[in-house]
């Protein structure tokens, strides 16, 4: 009896679904923040080693990054397809972005496409990239700069949200840390001898708050005072604020960055403090391939009989990959509750059976798209053409230092 490719994928994922559920819960119940995902990395790589995959640890120089790869017995001259898993948690919130599910979705897609390569006897390579620190410093950006993704024809992943989409245009974002250095003094005996670094942090926050009146609706600037002082009876000589700014494209991000940097400078001038600004790599806007995105949305609409979820902000380091590779960052509905990411309720929903089942279907949908790229040359040609057209029309081609907006 002949079996369809869709059936191969469905059976491959169904076969390991209960195992992946256990992996997901183990990661969820042991949340680890950026670059500290040691348990999650070991759980995933141990599982894949047991399945016979070749594992490369410390990918891109990151201790919690890895690559699991498989080449078809028919040879490696076909497509080189890559999937991404994320597994870092949010401080205090835990897996409020569902990265425990993203972790196992990547494993499911790797297993499914490996089975397709075997059963259909077609050449090609499939890889799973374990990508840490998405919530903080941008692990994928570092890995790309180190050449980890070089040679990949197609990169795909899925992410839980309050709805599904195959055309999510994420926001560019840039994280900034600002330290203020003042002079300590007794707050009652000789406050005039001090230079208040805590006041500099406060003035920065207030100035940026006033600045928002001139922001475009899609611009964002949000931050916290990480260190404002130690005791109330001493003028603090040190403070630190953490800020993230967002915009729809890199041109606007540069404008927002300039405004915010002037606020940081003004606070230093007003208080007499000196300052030091540190900037992380900028997350670029995600640009899903429209051909891949349409097929993904068709599959999700067929399953759930609902329209796609409208774009609603947020950023990802996967966006940087979308500027250099053919990509799809498929969104799917976590649990049908409409709860937003980065909330305690989302964390709770991310360990439910419903969330797992929806994750497995999203992984199946992405696998079906990847398989079509492998088997349908006409479809793959249309995917490449759409990518080429975007590159030709784009006004935001970046130089080698483009990841850090200056």
UniProtKB/TrEMBL annotation:
Pfam families: M20_dimer, Peptidase_M20. One of its GO terms (molecular function) is dipeptidase activity. Residues 175-267 form the Peptidase M20 dimerisation domain. It comes from the Eukaryota. InterPro entries: Amidohydrolase (IPR017439), Bact_exopeptidase_dim_dom (IPR036264), Peptidase_M20 (IPR002933), Peptidase_M20/M20A_hydrolases (IPR052030), Peptidase_M20_dimer (IPR011650), Xaa-Arg_dipeptidase (IPR017144). Belongs to the peptidase M20A family. This is Peptidase M20 domain-containing protein 2.
